[in-house]
């Protein structure tokens, strides 16, 4: 999935697992060129592992199955994710953030 799709899922409070598997060489090169702790926008913005990232060898049937089971059956785990999604919304400005940002840009351009 795309980064924006995972962020949108978070903003709509949809529990999720982020899965990515690319070629071994691409992943190896990427790990050396880009130094980030997480790949999902939700985790990057929150600067902590809110959603499970199953990357490369961790993206397998056993781990996907275990994560989906946890999301569906473990209320404490799911509620922690949902609580973090609420914090994410606050960090991003809450409801109407895009409209407020557009208004700021519009007003700035009017003065220019």
List unreliable stretches of 5+ residues.
none
Record field, number of beta strands: 2
Largest sheet: 2 strands, parallel
DSSP strand (E) fraction? Answer: 5-15%
Helix residue percentage: 55-70%
What is the arithmetic mean of pLDDT?
A: 90
Rough shape? flat
String of helices and strands: HEHHEHHH
Q: Give the helix/strand class.
A: mainly alpha
How far from one another are the termini? 39 Å
Number of domains: 1
Number of helices: 6
Spatial strand order of the main sheet: 1-2
Radius of gyration computed on alpha carbons: 17 Å
What does this structure look like?
The protein is mainly α. It has helices at about 5-10, 25-35, 40-45, 60-75, 75-90, 95-110; strands at about 15-20, 50-55. A two-stranded parallel sheet has the order 1-2. The longest helix has 17 residues, at about 75-90. The radius of gyration is 17 Å and the shape is flat.
Give the arrangement of secondary structure elements.
Blueprint lengths: L2 H9 L5 E4 L3 H10 L7 H6 L5 E4 L5 H13 L1 H17 L5 H15 L1
Parallel strand pairs: 1-2
Keyword list:
112 residues, two-stranded parallel sheet, 6 helices, 2 strands
Quick structural summary:
It is built from six helices and two strands.
